[in-house]
Amino acid sequence: MPNDKTASKHSRQLLFSEAIAQPKAMMAQTASQGHTSPPVDQPALDATDRILQEIASVGRRLEAMDLKITDLTLASSSIRADIAGFRETANNLDQRLSAVEDHIATTSDQEEELKSLRAKLTELEDRSRRDNVRFFGIPEQKEGSDIKTFLNSLLTNHFSIEFSPPPEFQRVHRIGPSHKASANKPRPIIVCFLCHEQARQVISTAKARQPISLDGHEIRVAADFSRLTNDRRRAFLALRPQLRSPDIKYGLFEPARYTDGESAKVKYEHMHPPERIINARLVNS
């Protein structure tokens, strides 16, 4: 069925056609009946023709407008369809974005959980190494065939430690493959004491009596930590020259906690917190 706009267009066309044709039809009917026409008023006739021409011109313009309106209507329908498509795409994107945000939130929670688990694992590993002591600088093959007897002699004669009861070792061995050892860089010896207090006594004595030498080789002693804790301690120790330059007192506590001299109750467990303290001290000095 034709729509309202098409019906309106046809109505206008009929109206203009009738308006043009009606005067001509009346004149033709008068002539066919043999009536004598009154004298023709030529100016009036000319005016009528102009009016009819104007009406016809208006009709043509309206028809052109109808065509433009039809084109605009089609274009508007196309635009509405495009907008509907864009809206659907936007809804899909919004759903996907929500899914990504949920995934990011879940991933963030998992990362926090992973960090917590890694910290707990590191703490457990450090605790399992509390009875270990590492000895650095002892030349290769110096221990001979009985490394435990050599270690007892080293602690008695060079560290001057009188143990009571005598120390007992669960394990004593060098770390790393022998083919990587050299005279300038001997492999460290790791000792696992059965008594934790004896391990602490060795470390504290070595710190108090340093330097300790064996046949001209400096012997260093250190506690045994996990790799992550060792990395964190190295990050702190790398700042010692900067701390000594402005004469800042500091301390490094196990496993990897740093304190400065003026706020000894504050302990920093992140990777590089002393840098901020150094900068603040230099600015205020």
Explain what you see:
The protein has about 280 residues and is α+β, with helices and mostly antiparallel strands. It contains seven helices and eight strands. It has helices at about 5-30, 40-130, 145-155, 195-210, 225-235, 240-245, 275-285; strands at about 130-135, 170-175, 190-195, 210-215, 215-225, 250-255, 255-260, 265-270. The strands form two sheets. It has a five-stranded antiparallel beta sheet with strand order 2-3-1-5-4. A three-stranded antiparallel beta sheet has the order 6-7-8, covered by helices on one side. The longest helix is centred in the first third of the chain and has 87 residues, at about 40-130. The chain is rod-shaped and about 150 Å long. The two termini are about 95 Å apart. The model is unreliable at about 265-275 and about 280-285 (pLDDT under 50). This is L1 transposable element RRM domain-containing protein. It comes from Pleurodeles waltl. InterPro entries: Transposase_22.
Q: Layout of helices and strands, plus pairs?
A:
Elements: H1 4-32, H2 42-128, E1 132-136, H3 147-157, E2 169-174, E3 189-193, H4 196-209, E4 212-214, E5 217-223, H5 227-237, H6 240-244, E6 250-253, E7 257-260, E8 263-268, H7 274-284
Antiparallel strand pairs: 1-3, 1-5, 2-3, 4-5, 6-7, 7-8
